[in-house]
């Protein structure tokens, strides 16, 4: 039977209709039962109230006279009513009458919710001569068993009639549904079950249902089968073309020299082609953890730039492109790559990565020539401007907080040049460049911006005493005697102007002018010393 309920719409619909009918009938029967019970209890209460009203005057006289016999007679008269089980007439000081039927028990006072505990009635009785004076009270308790019996009989009879009516209607409805709906549908289902979707077959119209909804259903199913057959034919052709196109795409994807990959907003690589693995020198068959960590680990020195690219591509729906210098392989070799990111969907990005090492080397070679002082090998004015622009970008990105500009002019260099010639002068400039290179960090920048003018950029130094120490060392080393060709002794000096820059939106021309002023102030103060811009 449970299997039939799961597999047969006839049995399931019949069981469902009968079940719903029984459920609804039970609810209404229960509602009717409780309604009849409450109604009968209300009638009992009204009748008891009416009885009390009938004997109220007699009770008033008995209480006023404190006549226990009269009160007892009244109680006995009330107990002749089948619906009463106990009568009590009492005042504050005495009980005039307390009568119960033989089967009465004090436990009957604990009425069930069905019989409504409030059925018992207690009424104040007033003096026959003074309506404001209370002389006693009368309390009556119903005969619970008698009332329950009467109520149950009436309510049960009504509920049974209602359930019988519900079952008859449900059975009739089941027969109608089975013959007009479920049985024809079952026949259609059985025929439909044996039809093959690719056979271009159709269902016959069931007899008697040619013009109703079931007949329309069969016609619609036949139409759908016809369309499905043609769709399957088209899909088969599309699948073949798709497989051919997919093989072509896979060949391009696998054999491309451009690394192609997908990554999420956290920078984790989701999938990639072989070129991607080759560019980053990954194993031929990297595991999932290696693939996910590879992009972030290879670009760990540029984590902020990479995260900025990802955010722009993901949230602003723009194509982001950056060049990165990485080290790959064992032993590590530097390689330049161009990374392009664009959003595909939600937090998924598509990436393209190309090896641009040769192009970068050509560009860097050209840039290096353009930005390098040919005599000393350090930066020239163009290189200095590039370095300042890079520092300004890093300050905007909060990579560095401040930097110092040291504007240096060699004291006595003109006399050396005039007296010993340009060859010795060039050697002095080269020697001073070596001093600067030795005293500053690799992350700092040195440039020769004029004949004997140099600029040093000190980044991320918060302790001004370190800046002073570097300036003092430069002055000390520059002032040492230099011997050329075994007998030519040269001695020069250095005056340094220092300007601290701690704002990203600085005016380059202005801060250079201020550093220059500080340098000339050092010269005016006796040369061979340094001076901060804010100190004078």
Automatic annotation (TrEMBL):
The keyword Transmembrane helix applies. Its EC number is 2.7.7.65. GO terms for molecular function: diguanylate cyclase activity. Residues 401-535 form the GGDEF domain. InterPro entries: DGC-Regulatory_Protein, GGDEF_dom, HAMP_dom, Nucleotide_cyclase, PAS, PAS-like_dom_sf, Rev_trsase/Diguanyl_cyclase. SMART domains: GGDEF, HAMP. Residues 245-282 form the PAS domain. It comes from the Bacteria. Gene3D superfamilies: 3.30.70.270, 6.10.340.10, PAS domain. GO terms for biological process: signal transduction. Keywords: Membrane, Nucleotidyltransferase, Transferase, Transmembrane, Transmembrane helix. Residues 179-233 form the HAMP domain. GO terms for cellular component: membrane. The chain crosses the membrane at residues 15-35, 155-181. Pfam families: GGDEF, HAMP, PAS_8. PANTHER family: DIGUANYLATE CYCLASE DGCT-RELATED, GGDEF DOMAIN-CONTAINING PROTEIN. This is Diguanylate cyclase. It comes from Undibacterium fentianense. The lineage of its organism: Bacteria, Pseudomonadati, Pseudomonadota, Betaproteobacteria, Burkholderiales.
């Amino acid at each position: 039977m449970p299997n039939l309920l799961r597999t047969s719409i006839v049995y399931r619909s019949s069981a469902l209709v009968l079940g719903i009918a029984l459920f609804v009938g039970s609810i209404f029967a229960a509602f009717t039962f409780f309604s009849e019970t409450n109604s009968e209890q209300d009638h009992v209460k009204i009748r008891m109230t009416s009885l009390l009203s009938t004997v109220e005057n007699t009770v008033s006289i008995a209480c006023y006279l404190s006549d226990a016999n009269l009160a007892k007679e009244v109680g006995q008269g009330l107990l002749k009513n089948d619906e009463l089980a106990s009568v009590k007439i009492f005042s504050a000081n005495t009980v005039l009458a307390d009568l119960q039927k033989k089967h009465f028990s004090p436990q009957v006072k604990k009425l069930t919710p069905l019989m409504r505990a409030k059925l018992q009635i207690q009424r104040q009785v007033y003096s026959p001569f003074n309506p404001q004076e209370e002389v006693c009270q009368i309390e009556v308790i119903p005969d619970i068993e008698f009332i329950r019996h009467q109520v149950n009989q009436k309510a049960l009879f009504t509920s049974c009639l209602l359930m019988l009516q519900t079952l008859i209607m449900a059975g009739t409805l089941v027969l109608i549904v089975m013959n007009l709906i479920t049985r024809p549908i079952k026949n259609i289902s059985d025929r439909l079950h044996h039809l093959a979707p690719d056979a271009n077959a159709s269902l016959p119209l069931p007899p008697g249902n040619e013009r109703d909804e079931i007949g329309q259903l069969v016609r619609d199913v036949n139409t759908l089968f016809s369309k499905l057959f043609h769709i399957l034919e088209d899909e088969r052709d599309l699948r073949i073309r798709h497989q051919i196109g997919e093989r072509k795409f896979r060949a391009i994807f696998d054999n491309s020299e451009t690394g192609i990959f997908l990554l999420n907003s956290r920078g984790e690589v989701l999938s990639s082609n072989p070129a991607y693995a080759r560019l980053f020198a990954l194993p031929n068959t990297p595991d999932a953890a290696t693939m996910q960590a590879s992009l972030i680990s290879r670009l760990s020195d540029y984590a902020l730039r990479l995260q900025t690219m990802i955010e722009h591509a993901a949230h602003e729906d723009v194509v982001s492109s950056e060049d990165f210098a990485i080290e790959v392989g064992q032993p590590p070799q530097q390689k330049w790559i161009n990374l392009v990111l664009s959003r595909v969907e939600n937090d998924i990005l598509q990436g393209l990565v190309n090896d641009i090492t040769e192009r970068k080397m050509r560009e860097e070679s050209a840039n290096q020539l353009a930005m390098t002082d040919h005599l000393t090998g350090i930066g020239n004015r163009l290189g200095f401007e590039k370095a300042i622009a890079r520092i300004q970008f890093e300050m905007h990105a909060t990579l560095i907080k401040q930097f110092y500009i040291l504007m240096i002019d060699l004291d006595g260099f003109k006399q050396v040049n005039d007296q010993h010639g340009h060859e010795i002068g060039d050697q002095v400039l080269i020697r001073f460049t070596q001093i600067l290179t030795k005293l500053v960090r690799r992350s700092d920048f040195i440039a020769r911006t004029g004949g004997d003018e140099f600029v040093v950029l000190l980044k991320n130094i918060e302790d001004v005493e370190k800046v002073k120490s570097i300036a003092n060392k430069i002055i000390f080393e520059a002032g040492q005697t230099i011997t050329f060709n075994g007998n030519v002794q040269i001695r020069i000096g250095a005056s340094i102007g220092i300007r601290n820059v701690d704002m990203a939106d600085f005016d380059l021309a202005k801060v250079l002018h201020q550093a220059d002023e500080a340098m000339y102030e050092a010269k005016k103060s006796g040369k061979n010393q340094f001076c901060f811009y804010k100190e004078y």
